[in-house]
């Protein structure tokens, strides 16, 4: 515990940098995955191709990607861009699948009704399909955020400054408390990102909250009435 | 691109096949860690997952467990357990970490597989006089097998990726080339190691994809030779509804 007392400043500085490194991949993941998800959902031809590529990208272990990217992109091996780009690739790969599922979850009857009401296909996308896909998109983004925050730590092995520094330094100096502070702060940051996303979801999609309570009421009713499944 | 040519040359140099640090030995280590951890994860997670899927209880606990495991940084877990268990016990520490990371995926695959089975099929099995155990073993488990293998697949990839980090606690595996390459600034070794790791991950993924496909029961996938006209008639919606009424 004496270690923590004299290193609060270091932990705070690393945490802040950790947050900065996590932010961009999460945003890129969401912004890039929505059009890719549409591509995978709407056209049969691009569906298999897109989902196969993102699936293969996601199988690449993170440390191997950190090593392979710099010569491919012509960037410095130890540059921070390396870690941010690699994590963005994972975020896009993970999120594209969720986005395809999200658009697939929109009831086709609702889509046809919107078309019948005179929505253009672009107008229907913004006004009907995107909001209705929202809850599933949010669920996917929460997974992306939490796993990105956790993966940032591996970047320490290629020289990026994050809470992962505490793991390697703590291992070399045999200070379990140092590693533990790193783990706790990583989980705290992941939970903070998750909480913010849940809050944003409630603000942007107020109807989802009402829906879950009404579903809960319905379930309770069913239980008291004792109907079948 | 010359860097990649050098990396390929490094992989196929005679030293890699016979020298003091041969690729075959490192691949063997890597696969051994992965398979042992996967087997332990399956031993823990499959019975629990089947229990959750069959009884329909405890699903929320499993979901939040998976979320918590995702937030845990694998490198941090690996380093702290190595310190706690002692460097001499690093293989045990690493296996514990791999199992912690593998269990949620296998658990999700197991209960999702059971949950995905049509409830009417389960009711039919019960009506035919099957015991709960028979329903689980002879109806739910075979029908849910592809999803279980899907869970094993993502667990295997997760463990394989984390096993790369095991080199940093002195356990070898393919990660050792990256670790050495970074420390000694030998780019061919570092890149060559990374290429081998990606190749191994893709092969493991492909094997599980194949198993997933093979695990679909013949009656479900439509791989039966030719469905009899009676069976086809029995499956039309009209007769199904009549039967249910």
What would the principal axes of the Cα set say about the shape of chain B? Answer: elongated
Beta content of chain B: under 5%
Query: What does the radius of gyration of chain A come to?
Result: 22 Å
| Beta-strand share of residues of chain A | under 5%
CATH topology of chain B: MetI-like fold
Number of strands of chain A: 0
What is the domain tally of chain B? Answer: 1
Distance between the termini of chain A: 54 Å
Order of helices and strands of chain B: HHHHHHHHHHHHH
Biggest interface, chains and residue tallies = A-B, 40 and 42 residues
What percent of the residues of chain B sit in helical stretches (DSSP H or I)? Answer: over 70%
Q: Mean of the pLDDT scores of chain B?
A: 83
Element order, helices and strands of chain A? HHHHHHHHHH
Percent of residues in helices of chain A comes to: over 70%
CATH architecture of chain B: Orthogonal Bundle
Tertiary shape of chain A = elongated
CATH homologous superfamily placement of chain B:
MetI-like
Low-confidence spans of chain A: pLDDT under 50, at least 5 residues?
224-229
Provide a brief overview of the structure.
The complex is a heterodimer of chains A (229) and B (245). With 229 residues, chain A is mostly helical.
Could you explain the architecture of this structure?
The complex is a heterodimer of chains A (229) and B (245). Chain A is mostly helical. Chain A has helices at residues 2-6, 8-42, 44-59, 62-73, 80-104, 108-116, 121-152, 164-173, 176-204, 206-225. Residues 224-229 of chain A have low confidence and may be disordered. The N and C termini of chain A lie far apart (54 Å). Chain B has one domain (2-221, 233-244): MetI-like fold (Orthogonal Bundle), CATH 1.10.3720. Mean pLDDT of chain B is 83; it is low at 224-245. Chain B is mainly alpha-helical. Chain B contains 13 helices and no strands. The chains are: A mainly alpha (229), B mainly alpha (245). The interface between A and B is large, with 40 and 42 residues.
């Amino acid at each position: 515990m004496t270690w923590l007392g004299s290193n609060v400043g270091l932990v705070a500085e690393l945490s802040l940098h950790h947050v900065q490194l996590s932010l961009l991949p999460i945003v890129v993941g969401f912004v890039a995955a929505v059009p890719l998800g549409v591509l995978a959902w709407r056209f049969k031809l691009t569906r298999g191709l897109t989902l196969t590529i993102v699936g293969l990208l996601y199988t690449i272990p993170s440390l191997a990607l950190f090593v392979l990217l710099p010569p491919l992109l012509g960037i410095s091996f130890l540059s921070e861009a390396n870690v941010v780009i690699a994590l963005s690739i994972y975020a896009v790969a993970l999120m594209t699948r969720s986005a395809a599922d999200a658009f697939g979850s929109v009831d086709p009857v609702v889509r046809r009704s919107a078309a019948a009401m005179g929505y253009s296909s672009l107008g229907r996308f913004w006004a009907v399909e995107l909001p209705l896909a929202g809850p599933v998109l949010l669920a996917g983004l929460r997974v992306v955020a939490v796993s990105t925050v956790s993966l940032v730590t591996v970047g320490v092995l290629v020289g990026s400054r994050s809470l992962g520094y505490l793991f390697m330094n703590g291992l070399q100096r045999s200070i379990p408390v140092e590693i533990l502070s790193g783990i706790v702060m990583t989980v705290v940051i992941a939970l903070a990102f998750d909480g913010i996303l849940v809050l944003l979801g409630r603000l942007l999609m107020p109807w989802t909250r009402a829906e879950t309570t009404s579903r809960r009421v319905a379930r309770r009713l069913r239980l008291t009435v004792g109907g079948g499944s | 691109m010359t860097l990649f040519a050098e990396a390929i040359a490094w992989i196929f140099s005679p030293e890699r096949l016979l020298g003091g640090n041969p690729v075959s030995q490192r691949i063997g280590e890597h696969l051994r860690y992965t398979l042992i951890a996967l087997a332990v994860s399956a031993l823990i997670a499959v019975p629990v997952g089947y229990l959750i899927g069959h009884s329909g209880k405890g699903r929320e606990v499993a979901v939040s467990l998976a979320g918590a495991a995702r937030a845990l940084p694998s490198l941090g877990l690996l380093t702290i357990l190595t310190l706690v268990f002692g460097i001499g016990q690093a293989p045990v520490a690493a296996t514990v970490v791999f199992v912690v990371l593998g269990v949620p995926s296998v658990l999700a695959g197991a209960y999702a597989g059971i949950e995905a089975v049509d409830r009417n099929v389960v009711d039919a099995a019960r009506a035919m006089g099957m015991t709960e155990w028979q329903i689980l073993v002879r109806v739910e488990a075979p029908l849910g097998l592809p999803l279980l293998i899907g869970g094993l697949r993502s667990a295997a990839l997760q463990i394989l990726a984390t096993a790369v980090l095991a080199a940093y606690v002195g356990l070898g595996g393919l990660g050792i080339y990256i670790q050495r390459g970074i420390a000694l600034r030998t780019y061919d070794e570092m890149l060559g190691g990374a290429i081998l790791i990606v190749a191994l991950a893709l092969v493991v993924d492909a094997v599980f994809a194949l198993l997933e496909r093979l695990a679909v029961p013949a009656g479900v996938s439509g791989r039966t030779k030719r469905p009899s006209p009676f069976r086809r008639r029995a499956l039309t919606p009209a007769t199904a509804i009549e039967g249910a009424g």
